[in-house]
Predict the 3D structure of the following.
Amino acid sequence: MKNHENHISSDTLNWTVLVILLLLTTISILAIKMHLGAFTVALALILASIKVTIVLTYFMHLKFENSLLRIMVGGVFLLFAIVIAITFIDYYFR
Amino acid sequence: MSSTEHSEHIDSDTGKMGMWLFLFTELFLFGGLFIVYAVMRSKYAQEFHHAALELNAFVGATNTVVLLVSSMTVAMSLTAIQQNRSGKAIGLILITLILAGVFMVNKYFEWGHKIGLHLYPGSDVMKTLPHGEIMFFGLYFMMTGLHAIHVIIGGILLTIVIRKIQSGKINSEHFLLQENAALYWHLVDLIWIFLFPLLYLIT
């Protein structure tokens, strides 16, 4: 089980990613507490999605993986988005 | 390249891909709950709003920071083992385990507080609440409880990783188990990134 050609993330990169994630968390707390009405949920989900993408890309090393794995992960998230969309279309038009 | 080396190479890649396939099933396990949450939220907007005020956003935010930092320490431990610094790798995983402990202690007090107020599924107080609020608290306990189980499993996995680093079974050449345990730990973090705003922040 030898790991070949593995990318080694530097500590600096990991720290930078953490700082960005903490900043985004602060932004989402402040933004949601401002009570933007109907946009609140959408904003919270967009910020959470950005954070999740950053974790997937850097902490979970997807940026350095082969394209097959990246396509699989992207495909699964797309599938999940479609499931949510279909659920809501069904829910609102029944 | 000899044929054995070749098969070893595939093992590592497929081992990681197997882990990702498992993570996809986890995503859909929580995804189902997120869909229930989304539909119920749109059906009982007012009652969800009222029930969500009961949750302490500060505790949620603290646990978010704890998990984000633990995600970084586990990513750094992988860097350390690849650089053949096993002592540093063990230290970073220990920090991750301590942070997991902090998370669980926070969760214990949070749940304890709710249970003290008789806000748990099936309680006398809960039965008097409107349907939407019962749904909210049911989803709250289900989602955070399932997530907490994942934190415990992740902690056990990381403990096994520490033992294997100590015995030399995980080293700078062979670290697939540590990679997969780290992936699992990041998934725990990913799920919390969505749980925190949906349950604690949006009221």
